[in-house]
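User: For a benchmark we're assembling, each entry needs the component sequences followed by a predicted structure for the full assembly. Here are entry 17's components. Please fill in the structure.
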Amino acid sequence: GAVVSQHPSRVICKSGTSVKIECRSLDFQATTMFWYRQFPKQSLMLMATSNEGSKATYEQGVEKDKFLINHASLTLSTLTVTSAHPEDSSFYICSATEGSSNQPQHFGDGTRLSIL
Amino acid sequence: LAKTTQPISMDSYEGQEVNITCSHNNIATNDYITWYQQFPSQGPRFIIQGYKTKVTNEVASLFIPADRKSSTLSLPRVSLSDTAVYYCLVGARYNQGGKLIFGQGTELSVKP
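Assistant: Structure for entry 17:
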């Protein structure tokens, strides 16, 4: 079945560093990808919708300059956490959907980001 | 997007049938009901989706009454590996519109 790959699975870095997370659809073309954030013991919170070839749509309260999203191809979306701080530490998950397919969204296995 | 309400947690024992009910009073005519499973430090996995009556696949059944204001995910004969968080979502079918809003989820704990 369809697979969404997320990389890296875990990142530990110093405060002030920018971190890039990749989300790839491995066997299908994803016209739309979604980025979520999940804090411990909480549900997934949708951050933004990433559309190939156009600007991402951010949810209310999510800073677009802080969380840069690029969806340059039909199989790759990237999320860059700019100048990360300890409060940005979280579990980031992407999902992808195939344009006109009759398939549900597929999720990556997440990226655990820890900012020291 | 319709809001969903689920029990925060449930306990069960191996071999039992588990039924998790989700309330979605404001479901729209075009909305589908989808259930996802999430293990710790992993992304959610699709379990089942339905619109009305009953849907069954190899892992679960989904029961939806005529008024569609609630739904019940049924897991037959659970095992320890079914310990996870289960999310009920209401929204557009599959990728039409695409946006999924996750509620609190139900943390299922299966004991030996």
